[in-house]
Amino acid sequence: MELRSDISYKINQSMRCVFVIAVLLCMYSCKKNSNKSDLSDHFVQTKDVQLVNPKIETKSVIIDSSSSITALLDLDQAVIYYTTDGSEPNETSNKYTNSISISKPGKYTFKAFHLDFKPSDAIDVSFFNKGVDVHSIDLETALNKQYPGKGQNTLVNGEKGTLNFRDGEWLGVTEPFIAIVEFDDVLYIESIDIGYLVNTDSWIFPIQDISIDFSEDGINYMPIGPIKKIEKQESNSTKLENINISVSKRLKKMKIKISNVTAIPKWHQGKGNPAWLFMDEWIFNTKKN
User: Fold this and answer.
1) Is the whole-model pTM more than 0.85?
2) Distance from C-alpha of 251 to C-alpha of 244, rounded to nearest angstrom
3) What range defines the domain where residue 97 resides?
4) What is the tally of structural domains in the chain?
5) Average pLDDT estimate for 284-288
C-alpha cells in the first residue's frame, strides 16, 4: 500500500508539471499572437495618418520679370507631385524634383504622397503679373488701427500677404471699404485682380459685394457693369483668395467699393456679428501684362 501511494503521488506530481507547462505554453502563444495583433493594429493606424502639407516657398507671387517656387517635405520616401491646370495632383502628375522657375501667371497645385501614409491635402499657389503702376490711391475709409497694413499703399505695393493675417501686409476692416485709384495717364484696363483672405476661425470672411466706377476725364464716373458674386462661406476655412474682375475700359480713375459680410452666418460661433474683411494686393491688368 505504501509503494502504491508513493507511485500515485509521483504520477500526480508529474501530471501537475505537465499541466503547468501546458498553461505556460498557452500563455506564451496567446501573448505572441496578441503582439502580432498589436503590430497589425499599429500598422493600420499608421496607414490612417495623413501627411502634412508640403511647405511652399516662393520668391514672390507677383511676377515682375521672373519668380520661383520650391516645395519641401522633410520625410524619407515622400514624393511631391504638382499640376498647373487647376486639377488635384495624383501619382501620375508632374513629379517635383527641383525649384520651378516662373515667368508667367498661373496656378500651381502640390500634393505629397508616401507608401505608409495617407496623401497630404492639396495646396495651391497662384502667380500674377505685376500689372500697371498706380499714380496714387486715396482711401475714403479710415484704416483700422489694429490692422492698418503698411498704410494706404498696402494694396498697390507689389507685395502679397500670407496666410498669417498678422504679417503686416493686410488691411483689415469691419465696414465697407472705398478707395479711389488714379493712373498717370488715360489707359486701357482689361481687368483687376483683388486679393483677400479667408480665416473663419478668426472671423475673417470673403468679400460680400464689389462695385467699381470708372472715369476717363477724372471727374465724371460711370459704373463698369455687373460684377459676379462671390460664393458665400458655408464652412470653416483658411485660404488665400483672389477675384478677377473684367473692366475693359479706357480710364484715368477708378472708384472701388468693397463690402464685408455684415452678419456672420448662423453656422458660425460669431453669428450675427459683422465679419472682418482682409484685403491685399490690387493688380490692374492691361493687354500687355
Assistant:
1) no
2) 18
3) 55-128
4) 2
5) 85
